[in-house]
Amino acid sequence: MIMTATFSHHVRILAISCIAACAFGTALPGAVRPAEAQTVAVMVNGEPITDLDIEQRMRLDLISTHKQPTRQEVTDELINEHLKIKEAKKFGVDPTSADIDGAYSQMSQRMRITPDQLTASLEKQGVRPETLKARIKADMVWGSLVRGRYKEKLQVGERDVAEAVKAEGGDDAAQADAFEYRMRPVVLVVPKGSPQSAMDLRKKDAETLRARIETCDQASQYFTSMPNAAIRDTVIKTSADIPAPLRKILDDTPIGHLTPPEVTKQGIEMVALCGRKPTTIDTPQRKEMRDKMYQKKYDATSNAYLAEIRRAAMIEYRQAGAENSNAEERSGKKSKVRRN
């Protein structure tokens, strides 16, 4: 299962929210009673959504957004996810447990913690890890389905991008700021669990090498022969592919020299800048506009698709009284809903 850009974006946002929750969150009050866990609140095409599902998602949304959602908002969210997953299965989009666990692990890596630590943090706040994994799965399958079924419709023309950039004040001067960078990542390995003194020593080695190396050939010779060091194959990126802070570093680095050392999980990493030349392939402004236009198309297509399958769905509210009318009915649309 290949995660889509849209899914990755959602996961990054959720991961950032969870970072704050892990750092500052405390256990949320109000344990779920056993009877609640067995109570079916809604049936969606014959599949149940329980009070426990709703309670858990309300907790997750609270720690993710720091806003208390209403029960109806969360119920609608879960209904939509059930419909997305079922629709995706019709087209063979059905990730395995290993796929979901992999995405969960990637989220924890972005938060610089282990999957077990993420699980412990969620449980401390009264949220089961399965609740987060269910949300991840829905985002994953829906993004893949929409992008797969509507690939042609979602395409953004380069002429449209250029016109949109120009309309927002972009001009040829911005094109002059676009470069193609040829780079070779290098690393001075520091074994996991090494004392801080070992890391400090490798930093000094890195600074010494920065003062000596003036060409990529020299970098290759040094890092190929050094123990516990490595130099990777050449990577070619344009300005549009590189975050602004890194672009600034690369633009300030002389050709053939190394960028300032950075501490990572592997040890001390740098980049040997082998080439930098102007390019007309793309610019950060164009990429930003292209992504913005694509997202607008994706959102419109996704919303229309979801509305279509929701109109055809059988949604049955089991709880008497309160929340027994769905979003479609409140907006005046017809929906197949039975009430007990």
Salient structural properties:
single chain; 340 residues; alpha+beta; Triger factor/SurA peptide-binding fold; Chitinase A, domain 3; 2 domains; five-stranded antiparallel sheet; four-stranded mixed sheet; 55% helix; 14% strand; globular; disordered N terminus
Secondary structure: elements and pairs:
Blueprint lengths: L4 H20 L9 H4 L2 E5 L2 E4 H15 L5 H20 L6 H14 L4 H10 L4 H21 L8 H10 L4 H5 L2 E11 L6 H17 L3 H10 L3 E3 L3 E4 L5 H9 L9 E2 L3 E12 L5 H28 L2 E4 L9 H4 L5 E4 L1
Parallel strand pairs: 8-9
Antiparallel strand pairs: 1-2, 1-8, 3-4, 3-5, 3-7, 6-7
Radius of gyration: 25 Å
Distance between the termini: 40 Å
Helix content: 55-70%
Whole-number tally of structural domains = 2
Biggest β-sheet description: 5 strands, antiparallel
Q: Would you identify the CATH H-level superfamily of the largest domain?
A: Porin chaperone SurA, peptide-binding domain
What is the count of helical runs? 14
Strand content of the residues, in percent?
5-15%
Question: What's the order of the H and E elements?
Answer: HHEEHHHHHHHEHHEEHEEHEHE
**Mind telling me the CATH class of the largest domain?**
Mainly Alpha
Shape: globular
What name does CATH use for the topology of the largest domain?
Answer: Triger factor/SurA peptide-binding fold
CATH architecture of the largest domain: Orthogonal Bundle
Q: Determine the structural class based on helices, strands and strand pairing.
A: alpha+beta
| Poorly predicted sequence stretches spanning 5 or more consecutive residues | 1-13, 15-36, 320-336
Compute the average pLDDT. 83
The overall strand count is: 9
